[in-house]
Automatic annotation (TrEMBL):
GO terms for molecular function: hydrolase activity. SUPFAM superfamilies: Metallo-dependent phosphatases. This is Metallo-dependent phosphatase-like protein. Residues 18-227 form the Calcineurin-like phosphoesterase domain. InterPro entries: Calcineurin-like_PHP (IPR004843), Metallo-depent_PP-like (IPR029052), UPF0046_metallophosphoest (IPR051693). Residues 244-319 are annotated as: Disordered.
């Protein structure tokens, strides 16, 4: 049988799948009729202000009752203190004083919410099966971990910054992300990707950026830095021998800022399909700046970060990270979104809309 190579033949193997992406709600709840429709809801952490049982009951109760999504996936964040039992047993008194919480009881509020999938630095393969949905499949990895703030470290799920320990802690954490990950959900951002603070610091993790280069997921979601909310897409440099290189970063420009939702269309039917295996199979390799694009060119460069090693775009090269490259060169781009609902660096009444992402995924 002749091999099918046309765009139409390839596209029959995928279907549009809609992800509704939020983060950093900090006890805020949103009425279901004000939430965008979608197939999958993802919350990237900071569900609460401080992880108290009453806060968790309110937030988890709200998420648990949402019925318009076939799958609802959540991770914790640094503010969800009680969910990190090892941290809370040591530092909880500094946050809650005489109103100390029972960490396991707080964790059970999340674990017992049967309609929610809680990921704590782990991977799942999702098969959407609703007869009214796209019936697609994808792999997802979710993690609550973020690099610490200036000492002392008094927040949950934090690790030593790579600049402080030569990347030992971060490397141990982010080397665990599977190479077949389609959707990467982390509470904190990668270095220089939706991580700029109010003081113009790049708060993201260098080793997470390196992990993204190796994995090159279709979609990487985060929060944590409220003021860095937004969407961009990274074109990975797979030809250079420089490790962890990026060809370009393009910022998403909302074509309908007054609309009911912020919709990012990465499908083959959209104005600028994502160049990543399974997301736009058979679509021509459009160069940045193609007509009808909603993305602005920000420039190019290389950010090796820490702990680099010899790599090459030739999978057969002795200098190549063969596991990351061989038979995976079609993973050329990643869409990165900081989905913070809070619009200010602090908790406030000013809110952002959910970010909605459409992807072509395999059936």
């Amino acid at each position: 049988m002749a091999q099918m190579t046309s765009s139409s033949a390839m596209l029959k193997q995928t279907r549009r799948t809609r992800f509704v992406c939020i983060s950093d709600t900090h006890n805020a709840t949103i009425k279901e009729d004000e939430m965008p429709d979608g197939d999958v809801l993802i919350h990237c952490g900071d569900l609460t202000d401080s992880g108290k049982a009453k806060e968790l009951e309110t937030t988890i109760g709200w998420l648990d009752k949402l019925t318009k999504y076939e799958v609802k996936i959540i991770v914790a964040g640094n503010h969800d203190l009680t969910i990190d039992s090892a941290f809370y047993n040591q530092y909880g008194m500094y946050h809650h004083g005489q109103n100390a919480q029972k960490s396991q009881e707080c964790r059970n509020i999340i674990l017992n919410a049967t309609s929610l999938m809680y990921l704590e630095h782990e991977s799942r393969t999702i098969h959407l099966s609703s007869p009214n949905g796209p019936r697609t499949k994808f792999s997802i990895f979710g993690s609550p971990h973020t690099p610490n703030f200036p000492a002392p470290n008094e927040w949950a799920f934090m690790y030593t910054r790579p600049t402080e320990d030569d990347g030992v802690a971060a490397s141990k954490i982010w080397s665990q992300v599977p190479l077949d990950t389609d959707i990467l959900v982390t509470h904190g951002p990668a270095h220089k990707h939706r991580d700029e603070t109010m003081s113009r610091d790049a708060a993201g993790c260098e080793l997470l950026q390196q992990a993204m280069w190796r994995v090159r997921p279709r979609l990487a979601l985060c929060g944590h830095i409220h003021e860095a909310r937004g969407v961009e897409r990274v074109r990975w440099n797979l030809d250079s021998k420089a490790p962890y290189a990026e060809t370009s970063t393009r910022q998403w420009e909302n074509p309908d800022p007054e609309g009911e939702m912020d919709l990012v269309d990465l499908t083959a039917a959209g104005p600028d399909p994502l160049l990543n295996d399974g997301s736009s199979a058979g679509v021509e390799d459009k160069q940045p700046g193609a007509s009808r694009t909603w993305w602005s060119e920000e420039g190019s460069g290389v950010n090796p970060g820490l702990g680099t090693r010899g790599l090459s775009g030739n999978p057969e090269s002795a200098r190549s990270d063969q596991a990351a490259l061989k038979r995976r060169l079609g993973r050329k781009e990643t869409c990165i979104a900081n989905c913070s609902i809070m619009a200010k660096p602090w908790v406030s009444q000013q809110r952002n809309k959910s970010i909605v992402v459409d992807l072509d995924l395999p059936i």
